[in-house]
Amino acid sequence: MEAGNPVCQPPSRHQELCEVSIRIKSVKGWLLIAMAGCMALMAGFAQASAPAAAPDGVSYITFSPLVVNYGSGPRMKYLKAEISVRVADGATATAVQHHMPLLRNGLVMLFSQQSEEAVGSPEGKESLRQQALTAINQLIHEETGQGGVVDLFFNNLILQ
After folding, report:
1. Which purpose does this protein serve, as stated in its record (predicted)?
2. Residue 102: is its pLDDT beyond 70?
3. Which of 20, 102, 131, 133 could be bridged to 152 by S-S, CB 3.0 to 4.6 A?
4. Structural domain tally of the chain?
5. What are residue 2's phi and psi, to 5 degrees?
6. Do 73 and 45 share a domain, yes or no?
7. How far is C-alpha 62 from the geometric centre of its chain's CA atoms?
8. Are 139 and 99 in contact (CB under 8 A)?
9. Range of 24's domain?
10. Model pLDDT for residues 12-47, shown as the tens digit of each residue
């Protein structure tokens, strides 16, 4: 074998480093592609989880849970409510989402004014549901000039 033949000589340190660098760049490229794909999937999921209106225009919007102190007396009482509202059209759905902080504040104020006796019975809970629906429609009407919240549901209501 000839000493000058490049095929028979072991690769130099420089050549090894170049090959390693190329492999690293290739791995980085694949990682970037994978991350871009994940981000695209997440964006698609976020769009899919937005409230979609049914063919008749009705959609449901869920509020994040509300936790308030209520009642009076020496013992602290808590009310936790998980609420969804049914809206009649896309404009109302947009208004509810846009004014969510205002609506949540109105509900917190309403719930914190309740007495233990008022919310302790099924009739009291139904009355609270109706009051909450009226309060939301009133706030939406004050802000937008329209109503459109058809119904309010307690997905979960915990009194402690």
Report:
1. Controls the rotational direction of flagella during chemotaxis.
2. yes
3. 133
4. 2
5. -90, 145
6. no
7. 9
8. yes
9. 1-49
10. 776 766 665 666 666 565 555 555 554 555 554 444
